[in-house]
Amino acid sequence: MYDVCIIGAGVVGMNIARELTKYNLKICILEKEEDVSCGCSKANSGIVHGGYTDKPGTLKAKLCIQGNRMYDQLNQELHFGYRETGAFVLAFEEEDLPQIQNLYDMGIQNGVQDLKIIDRQEVLKLEPHVNENIKGALYIKHVGVTSPYEFVIALAENAIANGAEIKLNAEVTGITHENDESFTITTTAGDKVTARYLINAAGIFSDKISTMVGIGDYKITPRRGQYLLLDKEESYLVNSVIFQVPTKMGKGILVTTTYHGNLMIGPNAEEIDDKNDVSTDEKTLDHIIATARKSVPHFNMQKVLKSFAGNRPVSGLKDWVIEESPVKNFIHLIGVDSPGLTASPAIAQYVLGILQNSGLSLIKKETFDPYRKPIIKVKEHNFKGDINASDPQEHLICRCERVTEAEIVDCLQRGIPIRSLDAISRRTRAGFGTCQGAFCSPRVKKLIAETLGISPEEIKEKSSASSLLAQRVKRMNLKKL
């Protein structure tokens, strides 16, 4: 029997798992997909938010600020990729300025440090490529960008190294509560898992999991956000994260560089019915482009690489629900939308407190190792990589992102089974460059097969979470927008 079972291997679930491995506990994580970080944790903006948009006094505001302050240390330990960039919220019209002042006031109430309202000239000095007709902006120093899926992967690898067990392809199909003593969880993997405590971190499916234990109080509506990713050549256009004044639907269309240096614009916010629908469409993307040009007018759509979409779990409540439910020892996390990525390390500590108050004994593990080595190796200017090199450290498999044989072999040996090119891309960036895998995909597939001793036919192009049925606008059509 496990002490704690966590349903969901996204950024919240894996932060909780890693936090729990600091103690003498037997931990299990159940994930319905074939890899970690396959839900909204992989398809979001990757912004570590500043905490100025959330209503003062809410759990969301409190945990966002706490989580923001934890990223630098976590990155030093786990090497997933994080850098502080700062951010601007632009005012385009005079009537936007009172909203900028309101955001400033909320940020101060929330405890955000180094906030200031600046005028047009100061913005243009720091961000010369934004709309020259702006009226001013709110500047937030402590905003950053991270690679969200690499963060989850790093958390998972470190949790496994410290004793946690992850069961993939294990969608929960039923839960029984045995005399208030333990839970028995059945999954599509066929085996049954028993645990004294059960944590519902299932994201957009958290309402479904709650229903399985008899709690039907919640309904999660997926809110889809579509994005466009452009080549790194366009990254000169912004130095920080560029926001517009937020609306009731979210923080609006942003323009930013990703952690790895691509220009990214989006997302929109549309409430849909199908939780698995991560398609994109030309009409919406055209709106995103037009809105983003209001902030940064001159990005070149000939440099677009792809579109993608992710769904955020919206509960319709005024705040996140993170608590022990009326079902003893069942902790659920409901409606953890943005800034859930930012808050996730603090959410883990908050859940730890709930477990302790519920009676879970927390005895520190002397052997806990907080460190995890990076997969991606920084290539210096004198790097001698070549597609024909015999040394695995120099043998390039992916030319665009300069990914070596050694990096791909490394990621295959870290405790998480990998059976798709998608999973390799999330760990090494192979296939994420200008050619979008046209050159490297067959080379990656061959290397996986050789390393694992399996047939190339067993390796999928995409994971099931990147549904081949999802209609995404083709690159050649994106260039026409």
From TrEMBL:
Residues 3-351 form the FAD dependent oxidoreductase domain. Residues 396-450 form the BFD-like [2Fe-2S]-binding domain. It comes from Propionispora hippei DSM 15287. Signal peptide: none annotated. It comes from the Bacteria. Gene3D superfamilies: BFD-like [2Fe-2S]-binding domain, D-Amino Acid Oxidase, subunit A, domain 2, FAD/NAD(P)-binding domain. The lineage of its organism: Bacteria, Bacillati, Bacillota, Negativicutes, Selenomonadales. This is Glycerol-3-phosphate dehydrogenase.
